[in-house]
């Protein structure tokens, strides 16, 4: 398990336990990525969850520098990590990318986010063919109640979650374990490749609940 924050890694290790090991790594540091895989040994299942939220906002006023930052924060790290990992992946293992439902949600103000996440999702089919028998899939989460949302004031966040729950077939926003179960399903099923799996509770359906 890797991440930029040692404190968050320590907290995750305390929760997970078992034989989990951690390695502090910033996906923006190419040398750190190469060093990690050089000593990682053979990897059966790789999950790439580099996150970035830059590049949102109305298209007419979209800051192109922020859009570039969105690609720098999520798209390019996924590509760099994937290339560095390939020599170390088990030939019949799996790769799971984490994209976002914003890649196809068609919501105003998300064209930049759609470009970043849609670019990753678009790579899944050709990579599934090119890298076979290695399997490649992606999970596309919707709104998930994680600390990422702590940047939104509590009352505003609660109102947003409540409104989404009222119009989503699942009747709630997502939880981290929902995404984890989706990842596990894709990694464990050896007959599944070329899937971009929505994990949105049905929020992407045109009619809602």
UniProtKB/TrEMBL annotation:
| Pfam families assigned | adh_short_C2
Keywords, ordered alphabetically: Oxidoreductase
Keyword Zinc-finger assigned: no
Keyword Transcription regulation among UniProt keywords: no
- Report the GO molecular function annotations: oxidoreductase activity
**Which family is this protein grouped under?**
Belongs to the short-chain dehydrogenases/reductases (SDR) family.
Q: What is this protein's record name? A: SDR family oxidoreductase
* Native source organism of the sequence: Streptomyces triculaminicus
Cite the source lineage: Bacteria, Bacillati, Actinomycetota, Actinomycetes, Kitasatosporales
């Amino acid at each position: 398990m890797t991440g930029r924050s040692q404190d968050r890694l320590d907290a995750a290790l305390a929760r997970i336990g078992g034989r989990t090991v951690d390695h502090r790594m910033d996906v923006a540091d190419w040398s750190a990525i190469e060093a990690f895989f050089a000593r990682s040994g053979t990897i059966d299942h790789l999950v790439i969850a580099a996150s970035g939220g830059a590049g949102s906002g109305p298209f007419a006023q979209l800051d192109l520098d922020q859009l570039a930052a969105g690609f720098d924060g999520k798209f390019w790290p996924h590509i760099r990590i994937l290339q560095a990992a390939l020599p170390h992946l088990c030939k019949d293992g799996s790769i799971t990318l984490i994209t976002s439902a914003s890649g196809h949600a068609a919501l105003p103000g998300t064209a930049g986010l759609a470009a970043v996440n849609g670019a990753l999702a678009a790579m899944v089919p050709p990579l599934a063919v090119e890298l076979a028998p290695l399997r490649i899939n992606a999970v596309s989460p919707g709104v998930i109640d994680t600390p990422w949302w702590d940047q939104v004031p509590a009352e505003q966040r609660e109102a947003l979650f409540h409104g989404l729950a009222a119009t989503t077939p699942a009747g709630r926003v997502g939880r981290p374990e929902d995404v984890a179960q989706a990842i596990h399903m894709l990694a464990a099923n050896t007959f599944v490749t070329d899937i971009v799996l929505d994990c949105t509770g049905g929020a992407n359906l045109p009619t809602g609940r």
